[in-house]
Amino acid sequence: MERPQSIVWFERCYLACVAVGVLNTALLWDTVIAQMAENPQTAELGPSFVPTILTVGLVLGLIVSALLWYFTARKGAVVTKWIITVLFAFNLVTTLFSASQGTLPEGVSGVLGIVALVLNGLAVWNLFRPDTKLWFGETAA
């Protein structure tokens, strides 16, 4: 079965969202490491602990994102469609809460976070377009 156009757009938006997230992580890397090193509890664990944990977290996040992308965009798994939707909803609520508390990141990091959220929202929106129903097996052929 040929992939519907909405799934192609989902894929583009979702992968762009992941790329923006990786870029944001790279830009914040030194700042996060410095902040964690200032914390006495994490400083006790040694200088390599924080970069190692950040690297492991980044790699695991990329693996999960890749699996969600693959099973949604290439295999039409409805379960991963809903996992992506729930994760987006959680991210949206968290961002709105942060905005209401005035704790959104400032500068480039904040802008990239909003760009990633918008791209993720567009990706999710494309999952629910009419031409995806057959892709996800939600209607008979």
Identify low-pLDDT runs.
Answer: none
Q: Give the class from helix and strand content and strand pairing.
A: mainly alpha
**For the report, how would you describe the main beta sheet?**
none
Oligomer: single chain
Q: What is the count of β-strands?
A: 0
Mean pLDDT: 93
From the alpha carbons, calculate the radius of gyration and give it in angstroms: 18 Å
Secondary structure: helix percent: over 70%
C-alpha end-to-end distance: 11 Å
Run of helices and strands:
HHHHH
Portion of residues in beta strands equals under 5%
Shape annotation: elongated
Number of helices: 5
What does this entry look like structurally?
The protein is built from 5 helices and no strands. It has 141 residues and is mostly helical. It has a domain at 5-24 and 60-132. The N and C termini lie close together (11 Å).
